[in-house]
Amino acid sequence: MDFFRDALGERRENTIIASAPLLEMRGVAKAFPGVQALSGVSFSLERGEILALVGENGAGKSTLMKILAGGLAADAGEIFVDGHRAKIDAPRTAERLGIGMIYQEFNLVPQLSAVENLVLGNEPTRRGLLDTASARERAQRIFEELGIEMPLDLPVSQLSVGRQQLVEIAKALSKQARIIVMDEPTASLTENEIERLFAIVRRLKAAGNGVIYISHRLEELPRIADRVTILRDGRIIETRPRESFPRDEIVSAMVGRRLEAQYPALPEVAENAPVVLEVRGLVRPPAVNGVSLQVRAGEIIGFAGLVGAGRTEILRAIAGADVPRTGEILVDAKSVRVRSPIDAIREGIVFITEDRKAQGLVLGMGVRENVTLAHLARFESRARMLDRARETEETQRMIRELAIRTPSTEQLARNLSGGTQQKVVLAKWLLGTARILLFDEPTRGIDVGAKAEIHSLMVRLAADGAAIVMVSSELPEVLGMSHRIYAVRGGRLVREFTREEATPDGVMLAAAGAAA
Amino acid sequence: MTEARRSARAYWLRVLAAAVLFIAFIVVIDVAAHGAFLRPSNIVTVLRQITYNFILAIGETFVIITAGIDLSIGSLVSLCGVVMAIVANSLHLPAVALIAVTLLAGLAVGAAAGYANALPVVKLNLPPFITTLAMMQIALGFSYIASAGRPVPLNVSVFENTGYGLFLGGLTNALHLPGIPIPVIWMLVAGVFFSVLLTRTRFGRYVLAIGGNEEASRLAGIDVAKMKTLVYVISGVCAAVVGFLYMALFSSGSPQTGTGNEMLGAIAAVVVGGTSLMGGRGTIVGTFFGALLIGSLNNAMNLLNINSYLQMVVLGAVILLAVALDQLRRRFFSA
Prior knowledge:
The complex is a heterodimer of chains A (516) and B (335). Chain A is globular and about 70 Å long. Chain A has 18 helices and 22 strands. The model of chain A is unreliable at 1-13 (pLDDT under 50). Chain A has helices spanning 2-9, 61-68, 91-96, 114-118, 132-146, 161-174, 191-206, 221-224, 247-255, 311-318, 341-346, 356-360, 367-372, 388-401, 418-430, 448-463, 475-481, 504-512, and strands at residues 23-32, 35-45, 50-54, 76-81, 84-86, 99-102, 125-126, 129-130, 179-183, 210-214, 227-232, 235-241, 275-284, 288-296, 300-305, 326-331, 334-336, 349-352, 436-440, 467-471, 484-489, 492-498. Chain A is an alpha/beta fold and 516 residues long. Chain B is mainly alpha-helical and 335 residues long. Chain B has 14 helices and 4 strands. In chain B, the strands form 2 sheets. A two-stranded antiparallel sheet of chain B has the order 1-4. In chain B, strands 2-3 form a two-stranded antiparallel ribbon. The longest helix of chain B is centred in the first third of the chain and has 31 residues, at 2-32. The mean pLDDT of chain B is 90. The interface between A and B is medium-sized, with 35 and 27 residues.
């Protein structure tokens, strides 16, 4: 644990007030035009503590953490580190105070190796030239301290998401971070990777660091958090030790209302419901290796599997986003040619991508322009001009139907919360006559309220006769939202489960390859 | 709705601020030039001077909105001018028909070159910087080959009116107004047409969407390759129009025309007009004001007898300043 002692030693010149908490934020407030994002936020973080910060999207978590990281200036309030008042006016200051951020979207340079990323901006040099040997040594020492093996020389783009995240953590530690903020760290990790991450977080805790853990996955909190703080509408609602904060109370504190059942009841699939989508022998190496599947009207199929199992790639091949090498797709029992998204949309197949920002939305455009983008031909007048009034009308209809929380039809997609963005993506597709919907992680990184709304929307679509295939890394979601479940591994559907026979353990085992 | 009203108000405030700045700029120039700048005849001169730059910049605006760039437009002005002069000299047609056929020939060459620019971009994913850089050389080479390196003088006079005639000259004369040159009318028509195309049609929306997020656009069922191709074709067509107007103005098609600072001037007008080089954002109206600002500045400096070398320095500084101001404003108002 030498390394961690080094981390503390760095600040030895400042007297540490033993009784003071590691970090304290007092009365922090921040307003944006039209929104009070934070008001009177106070909380503290002790040494060796893991504090879970929980709240719906738009509750103010990101704003609060941006203030802590020096990326945003607060309108009011004070920050204390080790009992000393700290003025954090730039990311550099936060770094010097030992505050390390691990964001949901990583800040790694994909072409560089783990070592190069680790020392980026802080490269050891010898006689003005890069000293690669000692950089390597430094990286190796940190990974050893973390108790993980890491390919040091591969470009990080070739590492799994889980490993990339470990590089992020190591990067924070190499900058002597003692207050570590993790934003949705498990959002795209497999169960094994999550277990490994938790082990590392516990080690950080044991070494006396403080961890602020932001997550939407409430089921994780008992495994990792010491205390839970709820943020809602820019205020701290409650902070309690985790043992005395049962999950349903956390949820109701978050949303300010008690949610009914977690997943809506699935409508029965009619006995004679026709097969709407059939896939035969779909192959697109390396990720898709022979997929056959039937989906009936009103049916929701869930794909469970580890990251890299090929779940997303299967959806992409069906949706024409990638062109399969071989295989046949049948819609309403008729073979169709799907070589591009244009073909797929014509056949009523739509693909709701996992990455809303990169693939779902034009962030610099407004809600209206995003919603109508895939169906613009419908808004053309005879003179081939776009009818904006009708666009606005239809967009307003979708805003009402999906309860999209936006101040206007012209609000830029960039300024919406994650859940709201996802609803805009859905609105885009529901404006058309989609009958086959492929959802990739439909509720990833969005808050509990929006999640429930998206689930009930999926159920409504199924009840109206849509055929749905859903990929999700949250096992409870797959189990709770699917009529049938496939375990996906190595680009194949390795096992089928009916709703009745599916258990978390059984599905997970099949996906992990432990069961025949 | 209050939010919508607020954002509408913010928009008009920005327009107002820009207008105030622009008017202040003009007044300062006019005072400095002892009233010579705002004289009606000088205003017409400025419009005439910016015509060619603005028409080129229209095509460049479309390309830049898709996060591309077209470096070949100067060479295309040259090539199209030479080809049209040769066509016009070799056909014996009634006046109107000759003008139409000549123009169409030039537009065809411009469109074909634009298509050739786009092909490697959309099929092989080559950077447009490279393909249009290559086209810049190739088109200029063909232009010199076709003209044997010398200007091709027109042996007909039917283009004179297009080149330097006045629009409804009798009327403006009777009203004691300065005559409006025909090329200015071409510019206004092109500006309105392409502005409507960009802001009011499906094609325009697709262009903006592709620049904003190409992958999301593709997945939304937009034929990205086709839209991008059309954008380069538009740029080539705009270059052909400028080649036509220059040929009419000089009564000859010269391979030298368009090979100076034309391409850089057009890009300057586009960026000064607020179009983002990162793509996804831009307007034809903005580009017009970009061209107008640069043109006014040039004109004013001439009126003030400023050394032409110094003019270059000032112009460069103004381009930098305008884009920096735009960036600062954006950072201020859209946090």
